[in-house]
Amino acid sequence: MKLADTLRLGAYLARTRWLLRFRGRAAFERWQQRQVRRFLDTHLPRSPYYRQYAGQPLSALPVIDKQAMLAHFDGMNTAGIGLDDATRAALDAEMTRDFAPELRGMTVGLSSGTQGPRGVFLVAPEERARWAGIMMARTLPAALMRRLLIGRRPVKVAFFLRANSNLYSTLKSRRVDFRFHDLVQGVDSHLPALIEQQPDLLVAPASILARLAQHAANGVLPIRPQRVISVAEVLEADDRVRIGQAFGLDVHQLYQCTEGFLGYTCEEGVLHLNEEYVHIEPEWLDREKTRFVPIVTDFSRTTQLIVRYRLGDVLRVRSAPCTCGAPGRAIEAVEGRCDDVLWLPGARQAGLSALYPDMLRQAVTSAPAALPDYRIEQHGMAWRIAVADGAQASHAALAAALQRLIARHELRPPAFQRMPFVDSDAHVKRRRIRCVQRPATSQENHA
Ligand SMILES: [Zn+2]
């Protein structure tokens, strides 16, 4: 890393961890408005696509989805890099599992999308340094922060993901012993290296952490990380408990995707949106404003512009504010993708109503008898369900639990069908609940 970038990393670490403080949400929002304005004034004119919108307020800019972002990729970045070149470079890196190559000095990568076209990201060296500083500020507990700054030994990080990127290895330095564990090779083959390293910080998708927790509980993975962080998948309540017990701590979360670093768990254990760097407009899903789809403007990125990007996630707001003082909105949970929401017509009224992933999970966990791991797939008015033990009794109990939820919401029950349980491989994102096809109707009512 160049000296300038090292200094930038340090500056953003200090800024994020200690310097950015606000007297309440209103003061924060005024500050954020100024940051967004400066971002729009400085960087929109540099992008061929956004040049036409220069001088306009954020609310006048188009809301973009993944398709639009890919369609206008060439014009939405300020580096003049085309989608074909970026995709080819990123695919090469994935094929060879050598994630070091760059394209004209830029880091390129693909999102690990579960379906549809994969997102492409483009990050300049100074953005990498900034990202690394913010990331360290957000993830290191006090003892590890002290070690990073003045300790004799490096902070040891073990990082499991489906694809590495130069972005992540920016964290590697004399101060940080960063090891990437490629999930293409499964989980268990990494155990010896993990035991040898004895990581202070363990970062992995929730389902992988659950597997590591199982090994730890069985005594075959003797490690004592000081912090365990879930990424890339929904952290479900049962996994959270299991992982927490195995390692004797509360599991933290990083809400990070191709479109930016969107959220993190604070020292009080509450998930906050990273609004000091990302502007997030809530697109409310219900009248009571408990759930929303985030529309993201990342005013800290200047190469690939992320402006009013509608992310297909459902976020649930936390009702009680957090006492830690962070200005970012407190989030109860990242519930899942928009297509993890299942839909049914009302028993009496017309139109479809939504059943959100956490409602379904809650219904399953509160079933009278403990149920094994499961999958639910909606195909119109048929719900295909699978249970890990394949037992008829488990299947019936799962269907009954869902039935009770559906009755409580006064919805028309679907036909429950059995499907075989297929556990996802380590390199595939786990999704328990999925809407493949909604029932045919034109109206929607959000519950
Ligand atoms: Zn907090």
Short description:
The protein has helices at residues 3-19, 24-43, 66-71, 73-76, 83-96, 125-139, 142-150, 166-169, 191-197, 206-217, 237-247, 357-365, 392-408; strands at 107-110, 120-123, 155-161, 176-182, 201-205, 227-231, 252-257, 260-265, 271-273, 278-284, 291-298, 309-310, 313-317, 330-337, 342-345, 352-355, 374-379, 382-387, 415-418, 433-437, 444-445. By secondary structure, it is α/β, with parallel strands linked by helices.
Short key terms for the protein model shown above:
globular, 13 helices, Rossmann fold, CHP02304_F390_synth-rel, twelve-stranded mixed β-sheet, 447 residues, GMP Synthetase, Chain A, domain 3, binds zinc ion, four-stranded mixed β-sheet, CapK_Type1_Caps_Biosynth, alpha/beta
Describe the structure.
It is a single chain. The protein is α/β, with parallel strands linked by helices and 447 residues long. It has 2 domains: 1-337, ANL, N-terminal domain (Rossmann fold); 341-445, GMP Synthetase, Chain A, domain 3 (2-Layer Sandwich). It has helices at residues 3-19, 24-43, 66-71, 73-76, 83-96, 125-139, 142-150, 166-169, 191-197, 206-217, 237-247, 357-365, 392-408; strands at residues 107-110, 120-123, 155-161, 176-182, 201-205, 227-231, 252-257, 260-265, 271-273, 278-284, 291-298, 309-310, 313-317, 330-337, 342-345, 352-355, 374-379, 382-387, 415-418, 433-437, 444-445. The chain is globular and about 65 Å long. The mean pLDDT is 91. The structure holds zinc ion. Zinc ion (ZN) is lined by residues 266, 268, 270, 272, 322, 324, 326.
